[in-house]
Amino acid sequence: MTELQTLVAEELGLPVDARVTAMAEAIAKEHAEASRAVLFYGSCLRQRQLEGLMLDFYLIVSDYPAAYAKSWLATANRLIPPNVFYFEHAGLVSKYAVLSEADFHRLCGPETANVSVWARFAQPSRLVWASSETSRERAIGAVARAAPTLLAAAGVKPGEPGLDLWRRAFALTYSAELRAERAGRASSVVDLEPERYERFTGPALSIAKTTRPSASWARRRIEGKALSVLRLAKASLTFAGGADYIIWKINRHAGTDIRLKPWQQRHPLLAGISLLPRLLKSGAIR
Predict the structure, then answer these.
(1) Domain annotation for the chain: domains and CATH numbers
(2) Which residues are CB-neighbours of 84 under 8 A, at least 6 positions away?
(3) pLDDT, position 137
(4) pLDDT tens, residue by residue, 136-147
(5) Buried b (16+ CB within 10 A) or exposed e, 179-194
(6) What is the pTM of this model?
């Protein structure tokens, strides 16, 4: 392993609440023989709080046809990855995104212009379930691509302190998606675990300096926001209570008090289309 892969393996292997592991195992069973790994990430991991929040997972599968009984789900996952599903287990709620091993590796790397996956896995995560040691090693290898991709895309400025580089890099990624977080959220992600980012800076930078970004930030912003809309539209077909969840997340992160009308709850795709101009104008999402 490289120095960075060793750091990633150590971090992915850190212990989590037993309820998180149980949830991951239950998610893996939903897709039977196709399941290869389950990763836990996001605000519940950062805040070390489970009750009253929605846990975030990525399920890595062998391939999409093997993961689904319905062929349209496999096609949707292949064309606009990932598919996102709502899941409950033992009194906790979660959402999980599904990616194939090949797509996870690709979407964590510099060949991918869209920031969605590599920006998330440049942050801390945990590998809470794996079907085999081979699957575990593949997950580690994919995650280890994320941090160098992020830093290479941000561009290294001579003399810039490491933590400032991370803050600037995450701020750029937040600008390339439809996000509900308040200004300064990118900095708070780093400031929550500064020692972690200090440890990762040198090993990640050594790879980033030899990595060529695949797109400009202007292109990433245009494509990223368009993809965000497409993924939200797709999620309205796969995600139970999707509209309520999206509004809950916007209200929580942006400090708003948006309430859905009954027709919007029944028709989440139309709700998203009708609310988008208002949300953009108010600054609730950017």
Answers:
(1) 3-217 (3.30.460.10), 218-282 (no CATH)
(2) 95, 96, 97, 98, 231, 234, 235, 238, 239
(3) 98
(4) 999 999 999 999
(5) bbbeeeebbebbeeee
(6) 0.86
